[in-house]
Amino acid sequence: MEKVILDVDTGIDDALAILYAVESGALDILGITAVNGNVPLQNVTKNTLKVLQLAGRQDIKVYPGASEPYLKEAQHVFHIHGKDGIGNALDDMTVEGTEENLFAADFIIESVNKYPGEVTIILVGPLTNLALALKKAPEIAGLIKRIVVMGGAVDCPGNITPAAEFNIHADAEAAKVVFHKGLDITLVGLDVTSQTMMDLSDIETLAGTKYYDFIKQSTDVYRKYGEELYGRNSCALHDPLTVGYVLDESLITTREVYTDVEITGELSYGQTIADFSNRLGQQPNMKVSLEVDSGRFVKHFIDTLGNQKS
């Protein structure tokens, strides 16, 4: 099984991505690192512990990381993810697990040194933890197998500003650090994630299974936000698709291209710019996602979680 670290800002779709990764049975999850993002770090950590408890996987350790971005002030999106970050779907759960004392960036450094060339890092929140790890131990860039990032919008509008996607915009300086360290990067952006919509009919197929109640309740506020945007009661599976790519790369068509992040523009801060026409004359530094087999992915996601009986 592929060794992975999940870096999350849990978040409704982060929670779904964690469950998807756990229930796929195809990933050796070394640990989960938490980062400030959708909600503050303390919410992220608590939500992650709750989701793992729901899955019965308290053996997977949670490592708290950056409580604020690399340089800028924190921003959160409670209006999308609810007051706690997971739609208050697990309010009645008493958390049994505890977070680890090791800082997330140090856990990343420790893990890739322990398994050189073997660890894939799946980042579905701002890239602060990895940027800090690379700052502290730049030599790990040559030890990481690959990173797969939910972030960016290279050929479509943003979702936090007209130009920028939330995860990159939340810490564009950290993203810029990561993008220029010579890593094997795949960017799974809004160009493809916005095509992977889960609606109420998909959720109803999970009735009677382990995660039905949680998915229906947690995504309620998320689907209502989707209804405002798209005119249908549905939500995009941004973070689960990023896990899905690690499970099956054939789901997404990518192109190698030089891509950078804007960090100075007043209107364009956080924009991911892919130089498709090679105007800058730079060598490609990542693969960007352009097309997705959305139907096949959504079916696999639903089937994977639906296989768990209540």
Question: In words, what does this structure look like?
Answer:
The chain has helices at 12-24, 41-55, 78-81, 104-114, 128-136, 166-170, 172-179, 190-193, 200-204, 212-230, 238-247, 294-306, and strands at residues 2-8, 27-34, 62-64, 119-123, 146-150, 185-188, 197-199, 234-236, 252-257, 259-261, 272-274, 286-292. The longest helix is centred in the last third of the chain and has 19 residues, at 212-230. 51% of the residues are buried. It is built from twelve helices and twelve strands. The protein is globular and about 55 Å long. It has one domain: Alpha-Beta Complex (Inosine-uridine Nucleoside N-ribohydrolase, Chain A). Helix 1 packs parallel to helix 2 (41-55), helix 1 (12-24) runs parallel beside helix 11 (238-247) and helix 4 crosses helix 5. The protein has 310 residues and is of the alpha/beta class. It has an eight-stranded mixed β-sheet, with helices on both faces. Strands 7-8 form a two-stranded antiparallel ribbon. Strands 10-11 form a two-stranded antiparallel sheet. The model has no long low-confidence stretch (mean pLDDT 95).
